[in-house]
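Entry:
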Amino acid sequence: MLDSDLAALYEVPTHRLNESVKRNIKRFPSNFMFQLSKEEWENLISQFAISNKGRGGRRYLPYVFTEQGVAMLSSVLNSEKAIQINIQIMNTFVRLRQWAIESKELSERLTELERYFINHCNENSEDLQKIYSALALLMDRIKPCEIGFKTK
């Protein structure tokens, strides 16, 4: 998550969040937090159409916090609001991980069904032609109803 997004959630200015982090920099190794390069930041701005806020936008490139970095922020930002927000963020990470696992399982099941259907179609092409013909006849007989007002 971007430092500015976290600061907005914690209801503190971005520079105050970064200031607290810098005072405790030993708690934030590179796998907890890193700074975007100029190129990455420009790509992010153009991709999401982020506009510069205030006079001239940011002076420094933003920091990005990983899940572990967000967890570590709770030890640096020690307010009631920070604790509540941290719990919500960590619960969101857990739900995201669960969704990713479920999506992978669903994707694998759909792939299995697709293979089965393709094999079935290849083995039973005559039956499929009959089904398509029957559906075509039905579609010809069904007339779409008109929608809208009728005038005399």
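The two ends are 62 Å apart (CA to CA).
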